[in-house]
Automatic annotation (TrEMBL):
Pfam families the record matches: Ank_2 (PF12796), DHHC (PF01529)
Protein's name according to its UniProt entry: Palmitoyltransferase
GO molecular function per UniProt: protein-cysteine S-palmitoyltransferase activity
Domain comment as written in the entry: The DHHC domain is required for palmitoyltransferase activity.
Organism annotation: Hanusia phi
Location(s), subcellular: Membrane
Length: 421
C-alpha cells in the first residue's frame, strides 16, 4: 500500500480534497506498457538497494517483458555488476533467452562488459548458448572487437573445445574476426585452436573472407598461417610464459637489427680483422672481442626477460568491484589489475608494466622495472662495440683513399712522362 496526501499533487486541481488521504493498491510486479517492472528499471540503473527491497518484497526475478527480457538482461546490458550479483543470488535464471535468443551473457559480451562476463562465467553461465542465428558470446565479442571479453571467454574450457562452432551462414568466430577485427583477434583465436581451413556456406575460408572485405593484413596473416603445419602455427601464435606480445616471435625491427649486427661482424672478420692485425691494432681487437659476448647476452636478456609485468588479480578485482572497495576507474581492464603509480599498459606488447619507461621495438620488449639496468648496460656495450668497429673502418677507408690517391698520381705522372717522350 502506498499513500499519497492530496496536498502534494492535487491541491490546485481539487481544492475541496485538501487534507483527504487516498489509498492505492500496487503489486510489486506491476509492469509498464512494454512489460518492464520496477525490478527491470532498478537493475538497469544499478539501484542495488531498490533491487534488494523489491526482492525482499517478493518481486519475481525471472519475469520477462514483451520482448522476453528479464532484469538480468537489463543489468547485463549496462554491465551493472552488483545488480547482477543480487539477481543471481535471488534465483535469477542465467540461461533465459529473450525473443532474439540472447542470454544475459551474450548481452554482456555484445556490449564489452568484461567484468560482467567474468562474473556470469564464475556463476556458471553457459558460454556456448547461442541466439536464434546461432551466434554465441565469443562470436559477438569478436564481431564487436571486444578484445578483453574475447580473452576472458577463451579461458572457458567448454568454449575452447567448440571454438569452431559455426552460425547459420557457416561462419566461425575466426571468419568474423577476419572481416570485422584485426590481426591480434585472429591470433588469439588461432592460438586457442581455431581452424584456418574451415569454409563457410559460400565456400570461403577466413583469409578469403578477409580479402573480400578488403582486410588485406588479415588476409596475408591467415594465408601464411594456413600454409604452415599445425605445430608451427601454434608456436607462432603463442605469447610464451610471460603472455607478452613478441616474446616468442620478435618484432621486425628486432630482426632487422640482428641482421645488421650479423653483417657487421661478417664484414669485420673478413675485411677489418686482417687489416687491424697488419696495423697492430691489438687494443681495438681486444676490446671488441671482450665486449661482444656480454653485449650479445644483454641483448638477448633485454628481449627475453620479464620487464616487470604486473600479474593479473582477477578474483581480487572482481570482489573489490562487487563490494565497492575498488572503483571501476581504478582498474586496468586489459591487465585485470588495479592501477599502480608509474605503471602503464603497453598497447604494442600488450602487458601492464611497473615503472614503465618506453616501448622499444629494437629489443622487442618494454623497458620497465626489471630490465631497465640490463637495457642501459646493453646500450653502453653496443656503443663500445660500435665505436671500435667505426674506428677500425675509418682507418681502413682512410688507407684505401691514400692508396687510391697515390695510384692516381703515379698514373698521371707516368702519362705525363710518356707524352713528353
Amino acid at each position: 500500500r502506498v499513500s499519497f496526501s492530496t496536498s502534494s499533487f492535487r491541491e490546485k486541481t481539487k481544492p475541496d480534497m485538501v487534507g483527504e488521504v487516498k489509498w492505492f493498491r500496487h503489486n510489486v510486479d506491476d509492469a509498464d506498457l512494454s512489460g518492464y517492472t520496477a525490478l527491470h528499471w532498478a537493475s538497469l540503473n544499478d539501484h542495488v538497494e531498490v533491487v534488494d527491497l523489491l526482492l525482499s518484497k517478493g518481486a519475481s526475478v525471472n519475469i520477462s517483458s514483451q520482448d522476453g527480457q528479464t532484469a538480468m538482461h537489463w543489468a547485463s546490458l549496462k554491465g551493472n555488476l552488483r545488480a547482477l550479483d543480487r539477481l543471481q543470488r535471488g534465483g535469477a535464471d542465467m540461461e533465459q533467452q529473450d525473443e532474439w535468443g540472447f542470454t544475459p551473457l551474450v548481452r554482456a559480451a555484445q556490449n564489452g562488459h568484461v567484468f560482467s562476463v567474468m562474473l556470469l562465467l564464475k556463476q556458471g553461465a553457459n558460454a556456448l548458448a547461442c541466439d536464434e542465428e546461432r551466434h554465441n558470446s565469443l562470436q559477438w565479442a569478436v564481431f564487436h572487437q571486444h578484445h578483453e571479453v574475447a580473452t576472458c571467454l577463451l579461458r572457458d574450457d567448454r568454449l575452447r573445445r567448440r571454438i569452431n562452432t559455426a552460425d547459420l551462414n557457416g561462419q566461425t568466430a575466426l571468419h568474423l574476426a577476419a572481416k570485422r577485427s584485426g590481426r591480434e583477434m585472429c591470433r588469439k583465436l588461432v592460438q586457442a585452436g581455431a581452424d584456418v581451413s574451415l569454409r563457410d556456406k559460400d565456400g570461403k575460408r577466413a583469409d578469403e573472407v578477409a580479402l573480400a572485405d578488403h582486410r588485406h593484413r588479415n588476409h596475408f596473416y591467415l594465408k601464411v598461417l594456413s600454409m604452415l603445419p599445425s605445430k608451427v602455427r601454434q608456436f607462432l601464435t603463442s605469447y610464451g610464459r610471460q603472455d607478452r606480445a613478441f616474446s616468442v616471435v620478435p618484432t621486425s625491427e628486432f630482426i632487422f637489427g640482428n641482421i645488421m649486427i650479423f653483417l657487421a661482424y661478417i664484414y669485420y672478420f673478413i675485411v677489418l680483422l686482417p687489416f687491424s692485425l697488419q696495423r697492430d691494432l691489438v687494443l681495438v681487437n681486444l676490446v671488441l672481442a671482450v665486449i661482444s659476448v656480454p653485449m650479445i647476452v644483454t641483448y638477448w636478456k633485454c628481449w627475453k626477460d620479464d620487464p616487470g609485468i604486473v600479474k593479473p588479480r582477477e578474483e581480487e578485482v572482481l570482489l573489490g568491484l562487487l563490494h565497492k572497495t575498488i572503483a571501476e576507474e581504478d582498474v586496468v581492464a586489459a591487465a585485470m589489475t588495479t592501477k599502480i603509480p608509474r605503471a602503464k599498459y603497453s598497447r604494442v606488447f600488450r602487458c601492464y608494466v611497473a615503472r614503465f619507461d618506453h616501448d622499444c621495438p629494437w629489443i622487442s620488449n618494454v623497458v620497465g622495472a626489471k630490465n631497465h639496468r640490463c637495457f642501459l648496460l646493453f646500450l653502453l656495450l653496443v656503443n663500445v662495440c660500435l665505436g671500435s668497429w667505426v674506428y677500425t673502418s675509418y682507418l681502413f677507408v682512410n688507407l684505401q683513399l691514400e692508396l687510391a690517391t697515390t695510384c692516381s698520381s703515379r698514373g698521371a705522372g707516368a702519362g705525363a712522362g710518356a707524352g713528353a717522350g
